[in-house]
Amino acid sequence: MLQRAATLSQFILQQEREFPHATGEFTGVLTDIALAAKMINREVTRAGLVDVLGYTGGVNVQGERVQKLDVFAHETITRVLGSTGQLAVLASEEDEDIVPVPEGQPVGKYVVNFDPLDGSSNINANVNIGTIFSVLPRVSRAGGGTLADCLQPGVRQLCAGYVMYGSSTMLVYTTGNGVHGFTFEPSIGEFLLSHSRIRTPRRGRIYSVNEGNYYKWNDGVKRYVDWVKSDDGESGRPYSSRYVGSLVADFHRNLLYGGIFLYPADRRNPNGKLRVLYEAAPLAFVAEQAGGAASDGHRRILEIVPETLHQRTPLFLGSSDDVEACVEFIQGRHPAVSQERRADPEPRPRR
What is the mean pLDDT of the chain? Predict the structure, then answer.
């Protein structure tokens, strides 16, 4: 068993030895993701000194203004991963269509969906940002990868994780056998094992949501947020409100300390705002492997079968008991909802 301070490469190779028939191709995908993360980290840490801050003047497929670092991260990941021979196809939050392997390059048996730079609206304020990735098996039989290779439910993920760029840079991932975190040591240029087998508390005391949208939410979400803010020492309420506005940063904190991240549907975004492939499914895999949960309010995130590359979803993510309570409020099943109805019965209709 490797101890703390093992490098990411050492750790991956150690896990590979547990599978006698492994070819090393999957190990190569993870190693390439780590390489791309190092290259992005280099630009992030000196962003204020070189011309990578600010907007490009363009708008991406999501209708969001594109940052220069968005473009750099997207191009870095597609360049590093697309030329190794391990992948059949890629899909990026920044690209309207699938990203094929460059012509003339060998086509592999894996698929990577990724958000190159989550939280990019915070870049110019020097707030934590991140990269989210998901690795899936190819389902098409021959030739280049296809759209169907990318449109797979989260339960088929072989690996998922994120890189968080901040005061320290961390890579956190799971292959379905626990969640492990690696901190980047710039003096040697390596990710070192710092958080082995991360487990998130079953219940936390933090809720993370943009309450500026409160009056756009449905009643179930409103009731849940009101409930976590109400005073009840026995259940550990009120919860503390912590919201960075970078999904990776909010999720990472709650993963370690416990709590729930909410991005509900609202009147403006009736299908939610976060993407199934690039944000919800990868982080749901990590959350579940750490003992947490992820739901859209009615079904498990990992069971959603996406129909389009940029399909959106509501997301309730974090400690299992907190997510369960939130879902109960949304579905009107929580005991507090019944108590509220008894205390304030609907007025009888006039005759």
Answer: 90
